[in-house]
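Dissemination and training. As part of the outreach component of the grant, students in the summer workshop were shown how a complex can be specified as a set of sequence lines and then modelled as a single object. The example used during the hands-on session is reproduced here so that future cohorts can follow it. Participants entered these lines:
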Amino acid sequence: MALSPALLSQATGLMKVHPVRGVRPEHLAEVLAAATLQRLGDGDALCTEGDSGDAMYFLVDGAIRVQRRDARGKMRELAVMHPPTLVGHMSLVDHSPRSASCIAQGRTVIASLDRRTYNEILTEPSPRGMALRRLLLSSLTRQLATANERIAELIDGPDQPRKAAAPKGAAQRTHRPADEVEDFGDVSNTDFLKVAGVLEGWSIDARGVDDMQVAYTEDQKRNPKNRGVR
Amino acid sequence: MSTDSDIDTLTKLFLFKGVPRRSLQELLSLAPPVRFMTGQPVFHQGAEADSALLLIEGRLIATVTALADDKEVGQIRPGEIVGEQGLFVAGGKRSASVVAAAPSACLLLSPAVMDHAFHNPAIVCLEQHMLGTLARRIRGTNQAIQKVWKDVPDPDAEADAAAAEAARPTTLRDRLASLFGGR
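and obtained this result:
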């Protein structure tokens, strides 16, 4: 496939933002080549919170404001995304509704990868399939690290002995002046470790996997012909 | 050397549903099962994280050590991947220790294995499985953050409401204690 310099440039830019091991820019450019360019005007909605996700987007030019309603129903701006980056991929990965609304800020160009094409590429044992999977893995890994850092900031306290032994993220946190942080001296170790469990996702992760595995095992018992062997 | 029994074990995992036996055999040849006896350590907290681990048989327990206390933070069951960030983030450290809670078998997935066999349907399934795992963790973590912030007073609220809010216990410590059952 002949790839344009513009696509290769976009792919190279994406890989700088989301470092992807083992992938070459031309493989990622093949993914971009399967997307459809879309132009948005200032204030146009790319996707709306709560909607089902039918596409993911590569931000090519312009900017996207990410907004969501808080617990009181008030619209809050979470971030402004600038190219090159990915937007709206979580809904395709886990089939969840859009967790936020995305609004164009100024004239914006995006490359849209619809669900059908996404599924097709994602399951391919090809270089472009690997490029898409690893780009998403890189992005989600970073997203998880950011989310963990946000919790870490919430529980960070000054000069607490437990901080030195805290799991991941403790050493990377930005230490604020003592008068800006709260004292956690009377939070027990057990409580702290419960927070640590959330930080690492251990207690969260087991459920989904177990449910799928149990369903699969039961199906295999009931229908031996369904066993996943070719 | 992988055996038919090892391949059979993999076919029972949901994540490898529909993967041909020859692909599973290739995966096993690249990442032969590593077996652990009950109580044997698998990962050490703080150690360099340069590979992920897929549990195919048995059960593992993850613990976090703080102030010399070991606290169990989760169990790992067949079909679960742990430490996958080690595949994508260079220089990372293990965030928890993992020990075998029963005789267990795992595949150790290094970047070299993933790169060498990127065309293998089993590796494709593994990468998709990792995507799902990461997405669940992100959702869970975001939900935890939202819960913590839910009770934060609205800065734009009416003055009376703000005063009433201020009278309630709204320190971060109290919110966390409320969320995680503290004190």
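The first strand of chain B starts at residue 34 and ends at 36. Students were then asked to discuss how this feature might be tested experimentally.
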